[in-house]
């Protein structure tokens, strides 16, 4: 009977531990205000830089109005702001706890026997929850906006080129024994054709060795009903004379619209679309390392937000004991930039396939979390 009572009481203890008291709510309110200020300052700086960059880039080549530039800035800036959110949590949390320290509120809490874990962990939990919201909702919206900006920039730049040579389109498709690499010098969207097209055809023998077998050059190519139709084509197999075709059909597994699509860059691909994009790229025979790295970085975002929050709070608690406000604040900022450098270095190693994308994406977040917990343990328990 006692065992059943203790078991039934366990959920109540868990709920009471998770329930926020007046102190926790007060600290979270102060934290939210500081985070809002930090977010506003960083967002204003990012938008100002993007506005100037778009004005000097696209605005100098075309007659874009200030309102149009402002609209392009609004769809481009959110993606950059999302990438800088770890600094928002670092600076915002640092500002909130330093303010509490200056007003001696942390001193009063500690004198009343309140453990630092009691108000640091709810703040980290809120950062973790916001990280999940960022990955699942805010991030995809920002990525879609970045993709829209990239398409608008290409469209505006294409109109400026006025018929000059555009960037070539590369495609790859095929199954195990047969692969095709396709290069198109230009595209004619109005007639759904690729122009100045070259098909490089490879075959794979039973031993897995790939050999070049045929090249076909065509004036134009269209994709429909599971086939490429080549017009005015000249093809030659290895060791044989070239042959000319008025039209030539080649089987294809691509959808019709994919003939005109380039793979969106990883930053422009929403979180929910990344697994499918990775599969598409691998099916096409290309390396998906950059997209796998981006996917794992997004998965590690909630841990990063929580780690930066704990790190900033731990530095603020040290201020109460040592009284060296300037030195500890500068140390927190330096450590934040060290995290940024580590993130960029790890991402470069992952992109170069020196380390697996999983390790490259999670290593900065895990190291930051370990450093934050270590500093908080040392501050709280000595």
SSE order: HHHHHHEEEEEEHHHHH
Residues in β-strands, percent: 15-25%
What average pLDDT do the residues reach?
80
H/I helix tally: 11
Q: What is the structural class?
A: alpha+beta
List unreliable stretches of 5+ residues: 1-17, 159-165
Description:
With 382 residues, the protein is an alpha+beta fold. The protein has two domains: 17-159 and 293-381, no CATH class; 169-286, no CATH class. It contains eleven helices and six strands. It has helices spanning 2-18, 22-61, 66-83, 85-102, 105-111, 116-161, 274-283, 289-299, 301-322, 325-351, 357-381; strands at residues 169-174, 178-188, 193-204, 210-224, 227-237, 243-251. The chain has a six-stranded antiparallel beta sheet with strand order 1-2-3-4-5-6, with no helix packed on it. A hairpin with a 2-residue loop joins strand 4 (210-224) and strand 5.
Short description:
The protein has helices spanning about 1-20, 20-60, 65-85, 85-100, 105-110, 115-160, 275-285, 290-300, 300-320, 325-350, 355-380, and strands at about 170-175, 180-190, 195-205, 210-225, 225-235, 245-250.
What is the topology?
Blueprint: H1 2-18, H2 22-61, H3 66-83, H4 85-102, H5 105-111, H6 116-161, E1 169-174, E2 178-188, E3 193-204, E4 210-224, E5 227-237, E6 243-251, H7 274-283, H8 289-299, H9 301-322, H10 325-351, H11 357-381
Antiparallel strand pairs: 1-2, 2-3, 3-4, 4-5, 5-6
For the structure shown, list the relevant keywords:
17% strand, elongated, 2 domains, disordered N terminus, alpha+beta, 6-stranded antiparallel beta sheet, 382 residues, 11 helices
